[in-house]
Write a structure and sequence with these properties.
The complex is a heterodimer of chains A (304) and B (367). Chain A is mainly alpha-helical. Chain A has helices spanning 2-32, 39-60, 65-92, 101-122, 151-173, 175-185, 187-192, 197-223, 230-245, 250-270, 276-290; strands spanning 127-128, 136-142, 145-150, 225-226. In chain A, the strands form two sheets. Chain A has a two-stranded antiparallel sheet with strand order 1-4. In chain A, α1 (2-32) runs parallel beside α5 (151-173), α1 (2-32) runs antiparallel to α8 and α2 runs parallel beside α4. The longest helix of chain A has 31 residues, at 2-32. The N and C termini of chain A lie far apart (55 Å). Chain B has twelve helices and 14 strands. The chains are: A mainly alpha (304), B alpha/beta (367).
């Protein structure tokens, strides 16, 4: 029982991080119908910037943890959004009219570029920060197993819930959301109606990058160790989450992230950590066999 | 246009002259290891050690009157990349290789050096490295079965009666070491309670940690690299689990201390006897420290590998493979890590493993 609750907490935390990254995949897919494979590396860039900012703040003597995290979030979101904008401008916009394969390859190229750039400029060593928010609550003890809820886990889960609410509101209720959904349906018609399509797409990339930035900061504070290669695994897992939940759907991405986080966490605690990825991808295959458009995805209507 | 051409022509000519001169006079020796990637800090140690050794050897007149030139190969601990590094090194006509570092890289790469008749000295500890009948490979470090039996006996005596889990990272090195450690424990009558594997390179090991906690594990015998141990320790602390870790030679990396966030003091590891304490190594150690390099981990091994080459070539009076191989296989060499002589497989005749423990930023022998 104790272990079950502990794994539930761990799985929720992990799932929230995957979900945050998956939101970025799903938003970009929603608007231009392509998988932004560089998204995982945007998240990695964010985590590296977060380490830099946190170290810098530490050196400046800003030791109040909430303040430090808020400043870090602001700085990291700012820089990561610029990265998101640049990636779209450089690698995808010129290819928007090209065949579907071209931007996909361009995305993979971008991913390799970002990873190598960080490796060369920041070095390959892992970058640790000291434990920022150590400790947490000891919830209860059952059968000699004490269940812990760390402050960082509370932070990650609540930030994720808030962001999901904000973004759902943004997409469904605001004029920007309407513009975005219009671009999703028909870019030419949207442009004829006087909406700046390029700008809307750029904003979407920046918002996606901002979500990756938040995930990057959270992970840096939670695990305390980042390096240039973390983007790949996280990117693949988040992409899986987006597909599992139904790519293009915001709640779907979050649900997919949570499911994958739970599977990983329970599988490695009760069965074998060795085969947890097999379990994750096995379930993905099963879901896609019965629901090809994902759990909450709508089947794509062929545009005429 | 004309002036541009001239601008380029001059340096180009100089370079050509330089290369031509070098190609005739120098012997190329090489190191290979993870210069980039997750384990790049080990690569850096090797590089520092080899560079210092070559500078020292060249300052004393080189080998057989020729200067040494260092080639550096980066395999990032990726077996595929190791093979292409090996091919590139063969093309560069190196006469001696120190490397690779990860056992999973050394094993495929050594076949290529063997075909090209290049002798090599490695610190990779997986038994398979020397068990395949290759004559060109010499191991200047102990083997995982030796390391495992020392670690196993240490666990059985130091942590007698405590619950022990044996975990590896599925790499050739990690799994080999974990298996040998489990064997070593059983030989002393201690039995591991859990046997698990994880995937290296991930960040979340909370599943493993809570499994360990649920099983009441107090000691983790780990086969793998330091980065994962650091994360496991941090995540164990988060759920209030006190773990002692017993690992292998890779835990000697001081990156562990920063990455583990203050939890590294519970890490024990087996490693070759500390060469820094050798009286013969004192002057070399001092020069490393003067150059602001702490000669821990693999630094002195890289230095010793180059000394090994220099002494073998001097004894053989040649750098031809047949002569060098014969000298290496038959001779005894004085290096900064101690006396070296090899058995028929190419393993050290008298390897030693000692158990260390991290204390703050330093590790010390456990008595």
């Amino acid at each position: 029982m104790g272990q079950f609750i502990q794994q539930l907490i761990n799985g929720l935390t992990l799932g929230a991080v995957y979900g945050l990254i998956a939101l970025g995949y799903t938003m970009v897919y929603g608007i231009i119908g392509m998988i932004n494979f560089a998204h995982g590396d945007i998240y990695m860039v964010a985590a590296i910037i977060a380490v830099t900012v946190l170290t810098l703040l530490g050196a400046l003597g800003i030791s109040a943890v909430p303040l430090a995290i808020l400043i870090t979030l602001a700085v990291v979101i700012f820089f990561t959004a610029i990265y998101g904008w640049s990636v779209e401008r450089v690698a995808y916009r010129p290819l928007r009219k090209a065949s579907r394969l071209a931007p996909l390859i361009s995305a993979i190229g971008m991913s390799i570029f970002l990873q190598n750039m960080v490796q060369l400029t920041q070095g390959a060593r892992v970058k640790p920060i000291h434990a920022m928010m150590p400790g947490g609550f000891e919830l209860f003890t059952h059968d000699g197993f004490s269940v812990h809820l760390a402050y960082t886990q509370i932070m990650i889960i609540s930030v994720t819930i808030i962001l999901l609410a904000v973004f759902s509101y943004l997409i469904t209720r605001t004029s920007f959301g309407r513009q975005q959904r219009a671009c999703e349906q028909d870019q030419t018609m949207t442009a004829l109606l006087g909406i700046n399509v390029d700008r809307t797409i750029s904003y979407t990339f920046m918002l996606g990058a901002a979500l990756a930035a938040v995930a990057g900061v959270m992970v840096t504070v939670y695990y305390g160790v980042v390096d240039f290669s973390i983007g790949f695994v996280a990117g693949i897992k988040a992409f899986t989450a987006a597909v599992l939940g139904g790519i293009g759907s915001l709640p779907g991405a979050m649900l997919g992230g949570l499911i994958i986080g739970m599977i990983e966490s329970f599988w490695s605690a009760y069965l074998s950590p060795e085969y947890k990825d097999v379990a994750t991808f096995g379930i993905l295959i099963l879901v896609l066999m019965f629901r090809p458009s994902g759990l909450l995805g709508r089947p794509e209507v062929e545009k005429v | 246009m004309k002036s541009m051409k001239q601008q380029f022509a001059m340096p180009a000519l100089c370079m050509a002259a330089l290369f031509a001169a070098q190609a005739h006079a120098d012997y190329s020796v090489a190191i290979a290891g993870p210069m980039t990637g997750e384990y790049a800090s080990a690569g850096e140690q090797i590089k520092r050690g080899a560079e210092m050794a070559i500078a020292d050897i060249n300052a004393k007149g080189g080998v057989l009157g020729q200067k040494l030139k260092l080639e550096i190969g980066d395999d990032a601990c990726d077996p595929k990349q190791a093979v292409s590094v090996a091919n590139a090194m063969v093309n560069k006509k190196i006469v001696f290789m120190h490397g690779h570092w990860c056992s999973s890289s050394t094993i495929p790469a050594s076949d290529i050096y063997n075909e090209a008749q290049i002798p090599m000295a490695t610190v990779s500890t997986n038994p398979k490295v020397t068990e395949r009948g290759l004559k060109n490979i010499f191991r200047i470090m102990g083997r995982d079965d030796q390391q495992g039996s020392v670690a196993g006996a240490f666990i059985a005596s130091k942590f007698a009666g405590k619950k022990v889990a044996v975990v590896d990272d599925k790499s050739a090195y990690g799994k080999g070491l974990a298996d040998e450690t489990a064997k070593g424990m059983q030989a002393k009558g201690a039995k591991p309670v859990l046997r698990e594997s994880i995937t290296a390179g991930e960040k979340d090991y909370s599943g493993l940690v809570s499994k360990l906690k649920a099983a009441g594990i107090e000691v983790l015998a780990y086969g793998g690299y330091h980065t994962e141990v650091a994360l496991i320790l941090r995540q164990a602390q988060q759920v209030g689990l006190k773990l002692s870790v017993v690992g292998g030679d890779t835990m000697s990396n001081n990156e562990l201390v920063t990455a583990a966030g203050g939890n590294a003091d519970s890490v024990f590891f087996t490693f070759a006897p500390d060469a820094r304490a050798n009286p013969e190594a004192a002057s070399v150690v001092k020069r490393f420290r003067d150059a602001k390099v702490e000669p821990d981990g693999y630094v002195l091994f890289a230095y010793a590998a180059m000394q090994l080459f220099q002494q073998a070539a001097t004894q053989a009076k040649s750098v031809k493979y047949a002569d060098l191989q014969k000298a290496l296989a038959g001779g005894t060499f004085n290096t900064v890590t101690g006396k070296m002589a090899f058995d028929a497989k190419g393993d050290l005749k008298a390897p030693g493993f000692v158990v260390y423990q991290w204390k703050g930023n330093k590790y010390d022998v456990v008595k």
